[in-house]
Write a structure and sequence with these properties.
about 240 residues; alpha+beta; 8 strands; flat
Length: about 240
């Protein structure tokens, strides 16, 4: 039985690490916190009213102290520099929370963040998803500009594959969180979706004896790429803490 550490370079490394670290879930349960565990990324969160924020902060700090001790017993180290704090809630509730409501992790004071990245998705306090949409659009245009400069040398077939891998994959990733959003929020994603189709079109001036390229790429607008998901989600005031070790 493995007591300390995980062998490096083994194909079973990720699975062994999960088994090695899965007992940390009990610590979150003892403090009444919900948790999400993904490899070496731990997330704990709790909810309550704005007047309960001081109690919520104390619960989080006590849990983090126990998690830090657990890491030491497993010969791991809790990385306070990569620990992030985010308060969820409506605009009215967030105004009632002190903007300097922070937590302490191993003598490091963690200030609330405006947005945090969770498995590729950017989440902000009000859950408007605007920050995530803006960043995705910027990434798509970055790759489109690079492809636009070399698409004549690549040809339509190769350009279509690169657009699918570098641009459309970003539009499709985590697009379930975009379901039900107003058109004004999704508007920034419409331009890269249309530009993807333009980038894969053949050049207007082509030799008469050349064969037209076969482009096996179908692009649609952002609204069509978002799958509609009907869910009933309540949004209580919530504190979210993300830990790294």
């Amino acid at each position: 039985m493995l007591q300390f550490g995980v062998p490096q370079g083994s194909v079973l490394g990720p699975r062994i690490f999960i088994q090695y670290a899965e007992d940390v879930a009990e610590l979150f349960s003892q403090h009444g916190l919900h948790r999400h565990l993904f490899a070496d990324d731990m997330q704990g969160h709790c909810s309550g009213r704005p007047i309960d924020c001081p109690l919520m902060v104390k619960r989080l700090e006590r849990c983090i102290t126990d998690v830090s001790a657990w890491c030491a017993s497993k010969r791991l180290q809790l990385n306070g520099d990569n620990t992030e704090l985010l308060w969820f809630g409506s605009t009215t509730h967030l105004r009632q929370v002190s903007p300097t409501r922070s937590i302490t992790v191993n003598n490091n004071v963690i200030q609330p963040a405006a947005a945090v990245r969770d498995l590729g998705e950017w989440i902000e306090s009000e859950l408007s998803i605007r920050d995530h949409v803006s960043r995705v659009a910027q990434t798509c245009f970055f790759h489109l500009r690079r492809l636009q400069s070399v698409r004549r040398q690549l040809g339509c077939d190769v350009s279509a594959r690169l657009v699918s891998d570098l641009v459309l994959s970003h539009l499709d990733y985590c697009n379930a969180v975009l379901a039900g959003l107003p058109a004004s929020t999704l508007a920034p994603l419409q331009s890269p979706a249309c530009s993807s189709e333009t980038c894969t079109r053949p050049e207007a001036a082509r030799p008469c004896n050349s064969r037209p390229p076969r482009v096996a790429l179908v692009t649609r607008g952002a609204a069509f790429r978002v799958q509609t998901v009907s869910t009933g989600i309540q949004s209580p005031h919530r504190s979210y803490t993300r830990l790294h070790h």
